Inverse folding.
């Protein structure tokens, strides 16, 4: 992941629906501080909302770490979601448009990946899932 994480890192626990709203609000605030355009703010907030919901629904809860990043040329917002849930056995399948194991639309992960500039997913069955995303100001 390019850029250094800011000293402004904030952690939001994800244990219920209200926490998902708090993640959205926190990401919006940090995206504004990083001077993202309104469209890019909305993209990263939408991605974060989907990933926070997955953390809650499939991961059994977890947390989001939100910070600004700076690569020397641009500022951006970085969000890292982590849970200690069951993990994802087939990552390619999970990232396929329309695949859901839980009766959703199956567009959360794939959509989130398209909405951000950087997307890294690490998962281990039985151990949990971490998704890190960055959206840069342009
Ligand atoms: N944190 C996670 N832990 C375990 N499995 C996950 C996690 N996030 C996603 N998955 C798996 O990946 C699948 C695809 O996720 P995705 O967000 O794309 O779809 P969905 O949540 O099922 O539906 P939607 O997000 O469209 O409502 C999920 O159905 C689930 O099986
Ligand atoms: Mg989802």
């Amino acid at each position: 992941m390019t850029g250094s994480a800011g000293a402004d890192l904030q952690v939001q626990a994800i244990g219920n629906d209200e926490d998902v709203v708090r993640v959205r609000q926190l990401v919006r605030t940090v995206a504004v501080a990083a001077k993202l355009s309104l469209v890019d703010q909305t993209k990263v907030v939408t991605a974060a909302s989907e990933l926070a919901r997955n953390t809650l629904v499939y991961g059994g809860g977890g947390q989001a770490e939100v910070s600004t990043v700076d690569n020397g040329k641009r500022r951006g917002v970085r969000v890292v979601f982590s849970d200690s849930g069951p993990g994802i056995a087939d990552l390619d399948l999970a990232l396929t448009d329309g695949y859901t194991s839980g009766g959703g639309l199956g567009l959360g992960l794939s959509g989130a990946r398209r909405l951000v500039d950087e997307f890294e997913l690490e998962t281990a069955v039985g151990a949990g899932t971490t998704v890190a995303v960055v959206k840069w100001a342009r």
In short: The chain is about 35% helix and 30% strand.
